[in-house]
Amino acid sequence: MISSYVENFRLGEALQLFDEMPVRDAVMWNLMIKGCVSCGNLDTGLRLFDEMPEKNVVSWTTVIDALLKSGKFEQAKGLFWKMPERDIAAWNAVIHGCFRNGKVEEAIRLFEVMHDKNVISWTTMISGLDQHGRSYEALSVFGRMVGSGLKPTSSTFSCAITACANECNLCLGSQVHSHVLKLGYVFDPYVTSSLITFYANCKQMQECLKAFDEKLHPNVVVWTSLLTGYGNNGKHEDALRVFVEMNRLGIVPNQSSFTSALNSSSEMEIVDWGKSIHGAATKVGLGKDHFVGNSLVVLYTKCGNINDGILAFKEITNQNIVSWNSIIVGCAQHGCGEWSLVFFSQMAKAGVDPDEITFTGLLNSCSHSGMFRKGRHFFECLSRYAAIEVKLEHYACMVDILCRSGKLNEAEELVKKMPMEPNLTIWLALLSGCRAQMNVEIAERAAKKILAIDPYHSAAYVLLSNIYASAGRWTDVERIRRDMKKMGTLKQLGRSWV
Predict the structure, then answer these.
(1) How far is CA 310 from CA 263, 277, 441, in A?
(2) Residue 416 pLDDT > 90, yes or no?
(3) What is the pTM of this model?
């Protein structure tokens, strides 16, 4: 009865029934503690744990796992070391919790001092290391596991193949694939999905198709991996064909399927395809999902349908930072700077903190809409956000703003004082700004910097030649043409019949 109440989230009735019980054994105490934490009432679960007369390893593990899921790492670790005896499940729970809370080194330390490791222990380490960007170490752990004679499960193989995909290690991944075939895990949809992603990351699409077999895997995860793999390799028509085929076979797309299909439509700038996918997502209840919605905003704004992009943004149920950035950047691309600022104001009211992409969008909005003072204000605001790193993109936007407002000298000074080495984009922004202001001196210095980085950069030659031509310096124009011919970058200049 208590179990039934808990499953239906009727915790109050479960607790009342538990309190009325004359005799309560360890199983009943554990059931009630687990019920409390499952219903989100950790405090009551901890109180019952403290009151429990005879705790067993299940009691301890349940509470420790609940604390780790709640982010209370130190408290969980303290209880773990207080356990009278620790079984493998307790060790595995704490190691998993370490990764969940970003304590990677602590997880490694616990794993190394753990005496009896089972396949779950090894798989947890492989997965945890890979998810924290340490795929090479994850593969090393997988090697140790295989060397110890322990047989990997389908989950282990899936994690190891994912690590190979992240490392783009074709050689090792192919070896793991051979083991998968030998042990018969090729029919597991998650192993196959990982293999498809692995080969796609390694640009081996033919191998993807070999791993994929629609007759063996009528599974949305496998189909979505192939769809995404094609998209990530720039084969967007093939990606959309996969999406059509999976729908024809009655395989209902999931969140990732719709997102990948919309991204391919966006890359090809086919808005009609996007609208069709939008309709299909709405039919299965994913039209307002934030992942799908974010892709819709990008699609519509990229295809020039700014109003549809705004409508898609407003439909998103839980707008996250990506949602706000997508609409701010989309408005900036269409020269709707005032709209970008309005959305930024709404974003602040919603309590969503901006990031680097937000400010790139805002600076671009101000630059393209002629709001130079506001652009300077946003650039100065960047330094106030400790969590935001000022990047080259922000400097490039600010250089563009200063050039468009006629402050070429200030733009050049900003470039000189940058805390990082200016790249081609920065110098090109400065060189482009020189043309409108007819400033040959700064143009020459900017072009020199560009050609020092890339001697074959034809755009720099063309821009400098045009600036010389506008200034009537035809001798320098001819010199630039000779230099371009010598470097093999000569571009056929246009002619006018006027």
Answers:
(1) 17, 17, 44
(2) yes
(3) 0.81
